[in-house]
Design a protein that fits this description.
By secondary structure, the chain is mainly α. The protein folds into 3 domains: about 190 residues, MFS general substrate transporter like domains (Growth Hormone, Chain: A), CATH 1.20.1250.20; about 50 residues; about 200 residues, MFS general substrate transporter like domains (Growth Hormone, Chain: A, Up-down Bundle), CATH 1.20.1250.20. It has 15 helices and 2 strands. A two-stranded antiparallel ribbon has the order 1-2.
Length: about 500
Amino acid sequence: MPMTTDQATTVQRSAPASAPEAAGILHRHYLLVMSGACALVFLAAFESLAVTTIMPLVSRELNGAGLYALAFAGPLATGVIGMVAAGNWSDRRGPVGPLYASVAMFVLGLLIAGTAGSMAVLVAGRLVQGLGGGAMTVALYVVVARVYPPVLHPKIFAAFSAAWVIPSLVGPFAAGIVAQAASWHWVFLGVVGLVVPALLMIVPALRGLRPAPAKADGPESSANEKRGSYGRLAWAALAALAVLGLNLSSHVPVAGGALATAAVVIAVIAVRPLVPPGTLLARRGLPSVILARGLVSAAFFGAEVYLPYLLVERYDYSPTFAGLTLTFGALAWAGASAVQGRLGTKLSHVRAMRIGSAMVLAAVVLALVTTVLGWPAVVAIAGWISAGGGMGLMYPRLSVMTLALSTPDTEGFNSSAMSIADSLGGALALATTGIVFSSLSITATATTTAGGVSGASFAGVFALTAAIAVVAVVVAPRVAARRKPWPDRNPSSGQRSCR
């Protein structure tokens, strides 16, 4: 549950004193903090994509094939814990402490992974890195809420989206060059030298955030608040374990199905205290905003992983050319983010959600039909450009709505809830599609002697993610709060009276 307004301390919204509210995000009062925040987001995204590129090399050198999957699933799971911890801390004390601590943990994880001599140590570094990365995302969102006026939120979140997308264009290539020219260790260690300057650019803005005088709530209120914080951390840890269990269930020969089912049930139970009440029921307003974030993430990322695989296996594309499909989608994401930022209130949040979710659904359906009917690959590729555009429309607006529907004492909780929905939605979808893909591949192998991966495996993945996208389309209009009853006009008085 979100913390109440009767907290020990709270940090007030605080834009730079001399900055006009109508100033753009590149105004001299905002330039440093905007640059630093976007740089941190960029580096976190770059590291995620770069590791994907070099991990086969790392696994071969460290003889760590058995821990390969955990190197990706682990950071995602610990990131959930970091998100909740940063949200609790931000609501109680403001975002300054959580941001410093999260950056420190992120750097520590990079150092451990970059100096690892075994796969086990590298995975440990990745776990620490994920903890810091998840917390850093939430802390940065709260910093935005406290530093920028609401009118600038669409533009700054569009910049964040671009900072996430740009690494998809340069990250894999740059990581490959570094690994070949020097060593894969420098893909981790090289980022350390860039994180610190990025943080230093934000420091002046953080100094402008002053805590309000403490409110006397009494020892009982303080104890209840601490118990609530510890409880949320416990639920976050349980959700993280469920995600890990689901990812590892396919490796359990006999009880894998039971383990996967139990993991999903536990994840659903554990996530309820971590999101606003009514989220799993798609209640109008903030709960549906959080749910929509998880659904579109699940549909998009659950399908994206398999699209290049489809092009390589079924259409004989080279991995490099198949990967360009994701680059096209990333460019569309960045372009749509910029467009929605410029449109501002001319494009309503609900309309952006409806259009964006429909674009993602159309893209996944095109991938499914292309797979089943053997259509030319260009159809699926064009569809994925549409999917990227849809995500670019929705993601910044979901962030804006989350902050707009929050109060200063719930910004941390709600920001962490949004990030948790994002992370768990993608993680659960990837784990489930992996199970579907593996099951259909085994069935196809048993019934045919043909080599390669069957089309049914890809069709199953796209069918599942299309079903998730359908739910996202249904939930999209519910991000708007319920309207109050429309009052009648009294002709005699010219006043309105409610029915």
